[in-house]
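User: structure tokens for this one?
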Amino acid sequence: MCLAIPSKVIEIDLEKNVALVETLGVQREASLDLMQDPVEINDYVLLHIGYVMSKIDREDALESISLYQEMIEKMPDEDEWIDEEYR
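Assistant:
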């Protein structure tokens, strides 16, 4: 299963053709090599395996990010998950 993460563009390096994107407080570089449309700072994009795949509407992006945050909050912490698996 593939998952594309909505992320906000916070910097663009045209020389390297990469964007610095932020998702849930985590920043990472992402390649713009697969993008046909121009990307600007403050755009929301879909990030998949290190590549910006497409732009996404701000409202849709924020709704998706909110749902990801809810899922993360409902997940057991790592210690609980590991303990259950090895019981």
